[in-house]
Amino acid sequence: MIRVLVVEDDPHNALLFRKLLERRAGCSVTVTESADEVVAGVRGGAVDLVIMDVSLNNTAWQGQPVNGIELCRVLKRDPACAGVPVVLATAHAMRGDAESFVRDSGADGYVSKPILDHAAFIEQVVSVARKAA
After folding, report:
1. Which of 6, 33, 75, 77 is most exposed, with minimal Cβ within 10 Å?
2. What domain range is 64 assigned to?
3. % of the chain exceeding 70 in pLDDT
4. Residue 105 maps to which CATH number?
């Protein structure tokens, strides 16, 4: 079973991610917007994949506000976390943003919100998780 940590500040998006991943892909899903929980979960080996909202409004790391790009960098710089794949998610992307978000953050993938093609979303998440396993 793939253990997914969803880092999302919008409750509707969090619920959609949880339902899709649990019901259609059989994943175990935890949802948080706490940077401390994200880093601790990944460091502790409790997570196989992170889906990270790019625009986190209520998240701080070491006392400073962070967005998903910055939090992904924190994970990718930490040797204990770097091997866990991160898929970025945002509704605020313009053409070309996906590539720059992935490049600038070190993320392993990107999905655009809203998730319209549920099957393609599930396929992408499972594929990224399996490549890392």
Report:
1. 77
2. 3-132
3. 96
4. 3.40.50.2300
